[in-house]
Amino acid sequence: MRLKISHRTEYGYDAPLSYGLQRLRLTPQSGRAQTVITWEIAVDGAREELRYIDGFGNETRLISIEGEPRSVAITATGEVETADTAGVTGPQRGFAPMWLFEAETPLTASGKKIAALAKGLGEGDGLERLHRLKDLVADQVEYKTGATTSATTAEEALKLGAGVCQDHAHVFISAARLGGFPARYVSGYLMKDGEQAASHAWAEAHVTGLGWVGFDPSNRMSPDETYVTLATGRDYRDTAPVSGIRLGQALETLAVHITVEQ
């Protein structure tokens, strides 16, 4: 399936911004499940300073904001050819060692609730256990916008019993690691009807003989041809499409517009 994607992020400020630095992980890479046909990133109100591949294999750009602008707009557009591989994306790429995906991070640290959930993996082969976990996460964490923030941990989301795709991914990753599987966070896109206000997120676990396999508890499925991967990492902080710092007292507003269509 060929998908056409448009992702626009707009920042507005009520006073001139003296300086800011933002990191963009907005460039998909070709792989087993997707081939990038065209991709372009346009920036208004800032300039690109550096472009590199990070330790997880993600193309990353740094842009600086100066000259006291009152708005910054970042627009990523392109076309990606996708394939349904039943969620299998293959072997590890990048410089990150596999043990890194077995270790906890602040967002995926396990507690009593995660430990209890991990016991639900039960017996069976790797795929069977991980699909069981995917459904358990969906059962125990209701999809509810506004219930959590980007700083909510996996344990907190599970205790709350509510969250969004980021929380589903973190809970799955934390429990999968306790169950003996290296696991990682994936940011990307999912084709839906109409405009979207945020990108999507899911998890991947490393299964012997297959490599990385994706699991999306939010939709109770493994990614198919309607998904596009942007970046992977240990948790959300390694994969955020746009993140950064700014100097000054200006109040910031944010608007995100995403469309994914065939």
From TrEMBL:
Signal peptide: none annotated. Keywords: Hydrolase, Protease. Transmembrane segments: none annotated. GO terms for biological process: proteolysis. GO terms for molecular function: peptidase activity. Pfam families: Bact_transglu_N, Transglut_core. Residues 157-219 form the Transglutaminase-like domain. It comes from the Bacteria. This is Transglutaminase-like enzyme, putative cysteine protease.
